[in-house]
Amino acid sequence: MSAFTSPSDQPYVLCERDRALILATQGGLPLVPEPWEDLARQLDMSADEVLTRFRRMQEHGIIRRVAAVPDHYRLGYRFNGMTVWDVADDQVSDLGRAVGNLPFVSHCYRRPRHLPWWRYNLFAMVHGTSRDEVEQKAGHIEALLGDASRASTILYSSAILKKTGLRFRKQKEAS
């Protein structure tokens, strides 16, 4: 067993059933109409237990989320721009929610400033089939932010990084 500390400082002990669930999903969810039921059959659990375990691990900070990770390049979105914005700290939460709700923003979050070198505190990733499309989408964000945006820029991806989630090695069986 492994012990983790949750955001509330309550220890959470990862049991073998949790570990089996993580091992079964670390390569992705089954691409079937009912992935929870498929996992439940594989692991001799009910679908409710699968979902309950995921929720519990999420509540304790062991996993952040279960989400699709599309391959933007295979979908034709070859231009990826992390738009970064300098907005007032007392407005960043509300503005971030509004930006994050835009249909073309794949993820949006707040980051600390590192003055005097880095003034930006709101980040929003957009994807496009061209650089112009990314810049048009950044223009929509700029219009939404209005006067609250004091400065911005777009950081374009220069390499494809492989995204992976939590990974466990299979435990060696005792001999």
Automatic annotation (TrEMBL):
<comment type="subunit">
    <text>Probably forms a complex composed of NirD, NirL, NirG and NirH. All proteins are required for the total conversion of siroheme to didecarboxysiroheme.</text>
</comment>
<comment type="function">
    <text>Involved in heme d1 biosynthesis. Catalyzes the decarboxylation of siroheme into didecarboxysiroheme.</text>
</comment>
<dbReference type="InterPro" id="IPR050684">
    <property type="entry name" value="HTH-Siroheme_Decarb"/>
</dbReference>
<keyword id="KW-0456">Lyase</keyword>
<comment type="pathway">
    <text>Porphyrin-containing compound metabolism.</text>
</comment>
<dbReference type="InterPro" id="IPR040523">
    <property type="entry name" value="AsnC_trans_reg2"/>
</dbReference>
<feature type="domain" description="Siroheme decarboxylase AsnC-like ligand binding">
    <location>
        <begin position="74"/>
        <end position="162"/>
    </location>
</feature>
<dbReference type="InterPro" id="IPR053953">
    <property type="entry name" value="NirdL-like_HTH"/>
</dbReference>
<dbReference type="Pfam" id="PF22451">
    <property type="entry name" value="NirdL-like_HTH"/>
</dbReference>
<dbReference type="Pfam" id="PF17805">
    <property type="entry name" value="AsnC_trans_reg2"/>
</dbReference>
<protein>
    <recommendedName>
        <fullName>siroheme decarboxylase</fullName>
        <ecNumber>4.1.1.111</ecNumber>
    </recommendedName>
</protein>
<feature type="domain" description="Siroheme decarboxylase NirL-like HTH">
    <location>
        <begin position="18"/>
        <end position="64"/>
    </location>
</feature>
<dbReference type="InterPro" id="IPR036390">
    <property type="entry name" value="WH_DNA-bd_sf"/>
</dbReference>
<comment type="similarity">
    <text>Belongs to the Ahb/Nir family.</text>
</comment>
